[in-house]
Amino acid sequence: AGAATAHALDDGLARTPPLGWNNWYATFCDVDEQLIKQTADAMVASGMREAGYRYVNIDDCWMARERDSRGRLQADPDKFPNGIKALADYVHARGLKLGIYEDVGTKTCAGYPGSLGHEREDARTFAEWGVDFVKVDWCNVPFDQFPGMSQQEVAKELYGRWSRAIQRSGRKMVFSICIWDPSVRSWEFGEPLAHMWRTSNDYGPTWGQIVANADHAETLGEFAGPGGWNDPDIMMVGLGDLSTEEDRSHFSLWSMLAAPLLAGNDLRTMTWQDREILTNREVLAVDQDRLGVPGRKLRVDGDLEVWSRP
Ligand code: GLA
Predict the structure, then answer these.
(1) Under the phi-then-psi rule, with left for phi > 0, alpha for psi from -120 to 50, and beta for the rest, what region is 292?
(2) Which of the residues 36, 241, 281, 297 has an alpha carbon 20 to 30 A from that of 105?
(3) Is 137 touching ligand 1 by the criterion CB < 6 Å?
(4) CB of 188 shorter than 6 A to ligand 1
């Protein structure tokens, strides 16, 4: 791999790392139409759209507990009374894009309907709704249905199905692989199937966990480039008790890694410091550099590190 190689789906999407927001670390399963609409509004009002942010991504728990009578996914009618298509229209009207969530297994991580055996129709449903970004998780995979195959092989097979389903759906959608188990190395097959792939397990808003995610992604730079990126996860800027310096350093590290920058904080109530960090034009320009070569550690001397990025 590397900058000179053709990367990923070559569909023109994610030529630079996607910029946006995801609700998981801000609200976990508490997701509804109001949150998504208000977040889209906040993305505009805060200047984040102007700075390049586009994706407003819904995570787990958006679905009804069952598929409809024709086997199609449906939104929880209490959380999304107007359905996802109307929500996509709202987000698009503000110059933004809508993301959604599924899982390759029988159920999502939170126990909602999974996509195993429904990949084609689910991708088509998302395309019909006007979805622009699909995150597909790795919970409840029935490995016994794949005798003789390693988890690595099952992963490649199932995400391959989703990749083809999206390509045949009739709509261009960013495809985000969410294999949170780092012993399954999605970076090895992420390109050419997907636009981004997780490099570590779920984490929390502590400096130690931020550094651990950055350190792991840093070793995988050769796998990333225009069209396909290492994803050290949604950012923690503005979450927990991180200091302003830790938030700044976190944002800078993700940018040096050419990581997707998905804000994880509540944009409706963020402080001006968080807004300034997330909209820092010079740091965003490092992340969005067109060459797409991730940074590396040039030198490690105890706690002192020198990073460099072409
Ligand atoms: C996994 C993923 C998270 C989030 C949750 C939702 O833990 O890694 O990013 O999507 O599932 O249940």
Answers:
(1) left
(2) 36
(3) yes
(4) no
For 222-244, the pLDDT digits (tens) are 999 999 999 999 999 999 999 99
Mean pLDDT of the chain: 97
Residues whose CB falls within 8 Å of the CB of residue 295, separated by 6 or more in sequence, listed in order: 218, 221, 256, 257, 258, 307, 308, 309
Cα distance from N-terminal residue to C-terminal residue, the chain: 16
Widest distance between CA atoms in the chain: 61
The pTM of the whole model exceeds 0.90: yes
Q: Is 78 a catalytic residue?
A: no
Beta-carbon neighbour count of residue 54 at 10 Å?
20
Query: What pLDDT shows up at residue 10?
Result: 81
Distance CA 33, CA 250 (A): 30
Question: Which amino acid makes up residue 123?
Answer: A
For ligand 1, is residue 179 a contact (CB within 6 Å)? no
Ligand 1, atom nearest to 24 Cα: 4
